[in-house]
Amino acid sequence: MVVDVTERDFEAQVLQRSQQLPVVVDFWAEWCAPCRQLTPALERAAAEREGKVVLAKVDTDANPSIAQAFGIQGIPAVKAFRDGQVVAEFVGAQPPPAVERFFDGLVPSEADELVAAGDEASLRRALEIEPGNAAAALALARLLLQRGERDEALALVEPLAGDFAAEALAARLRLERDAEPGGPVADAFAALDAGDRKRGLDLLLEAIGSADGERDDLRRAVVGVLDELGVQDPLAREYRRRLAAALY
User: How far apart are CA 198 and CA 43, in angstroms?
Assistant: First the structure.
């Protein structure tokens, strides 16, 4: 959708509408040759994402107060709004591939929408479209873990280095594979699954003290829980200190 916006309706057409979906604002003027060069790429990108993004055009000559409010010093200038705030922007004419990437950063991809659906078929389809989609791989691995299909789950998350949640799940799968039934590691994950994070963390830290080759995986499992809790959580702060003490 492409709309012409003025000072009179900018708040409704841009700020309020951006609460529902992204709004890309094209600041332009009739005399601006680069603006005429950029416009077709913007309009094509918006049309390809019909219903997912709005393109709003603001003539800076006719609406100087809007241009001043947003610090427009050169045109074309493009700003993307979400929830009433500027979330991305660029200045100057850009080639069509750059414009497409700009819009892609605002609108969920097909794979992202499939991940949001969350069912197994959607997650598998997301990985067909984007084999490297970490969110899809992690969500599918969790479903497989619940079903007891551990080998496939591990194969999905092991390649996702640098993702705390994926590394924690891979560590769990390896630890459970080698753990003694009824031992502290098995009990730790049972406690975590039951929502008792404190007991689960206590047992994992206890296991670190007597572990040899599994120390890294135990650390990854603990870090995954702490990352899920968030940096401000009091339990996370306490156990971050205790993890450091257990390791060093």
Answer: 53
Q: Would you say domain 2-104 falls under CATH 3.40.30.10? A: yes
| Tokens standing for residue 196 | 């008792």
Per-residue pLDDT of 189-217, as tens digits, reads 999 999 999 999 999 999 987 776 788 99
CATH 3.40.30.10 domain position(s) in the chain? 2-104
Whether 35 is catalytic? yes
Asked if 26 is an active-site residue, the reply is no
What are the pLDDT digits (tens) for 74-116?
Answer: 999 999 999 999 999 999 999 999 999 999 889 888 888 899 9
Judge contact between 114 and 122, C-beta under 8 A: yes
- Looking at 3.30.1560, 1.25.40, 3.30.530, 1.10.287, the CATH number of the domain 161-248 comes to 1.25.40
Q: What angle do CA 91, 19, 53 make, to 5 degrees?
A: 55
Q: Is-above-0.70 flag for pTM?
A: no
Catalytic pick from 23, 24, 35, 45?
Answer: 35
